[in-house]
Amino acid sequence: MSNLLATLGMLSEMPLTMIRCRRRFTGGRRLDGQTVVITGGSAGIGKEAAYQLSLRAPKKIIIGSRNAENNERAVRELMGRNPSANITALRLDLSSLQSVREFAKEIAGTESRVDVLINNAGVPVVTGPPVETVDGYEQQLAANYLGN
Ligand SMILES: NC(=O)c1ccc[n+]([C@@H]2O[C@H](COP(=O)([O-])OP(=O)(O)OC[C@H]3O[C@@H](n4cnc5c(N)ncnc54)[C@H](OP(=O)(O)O)[C@@H]3O)[C@@H](O)[C@H]2O)c1
């Protein structure tokens, strides 16, 4: 009985929740002079975040993902959508600590500071058998916790 009531309560809340989720962020805050780093910026939420933040005129946006071709394609697409943006891509595999260190080192070599860091990339829920990374950690722990 209590389960049924809880379910009914959830269902009655649903339309309002959907309306709330559809609300757009309309703040006008700019990012002039700032450096933004987005992990997993070559696709999905990370790529759209890169585009949306580029509209706020940061000095530079750096996206990091594993696949170099996808990285380059994403940069081309983002620059096509916003030609005034300054977006670059670096290779990053969050499940390899060496890759994470190299990514951080490359950024430290060109940027005096990182103002916005979006730890977006991650391994979603794992259903198959555990996968071990090059460093000997379980893949999800390595990418979502240690790598980030
Ligand atoms: N979409 C959803 O409904 C949803 C819901 C809950 C949570 N999330 C989380 O939100 C984040 C983004 O989701 P999404 O839907 O935008 O994912 P997506 O479209 O699959 O994009 C994932 C991005 O992360 C990169 N990536 C994946 N593994 C990586 C790794 N080990 N190291 C570095 N980059 C990596 C991918 O590029 P490469 O493959 O080239 O590396 C890609 O750029 C993920 O962490 C996901 O688990 C998403």
From TrEMBL:
InterPro entries (alphabetical): NAD(P)-bd_dom_sf (IPR036291), SDR_fam (IPR002347)
Protein source organism: Medioppia subpectinata
Pfam families named among the record's database cross-references: adh_short
Keywords: Oxidoreductase
Gene3D superfamilies reported for this sequence: NAD(P)-binding Rossmann-like Domain
Protein name: Uncharacterized protein
GO molecular function, one term: oxidoreductase activity
Transmembrane segments: none
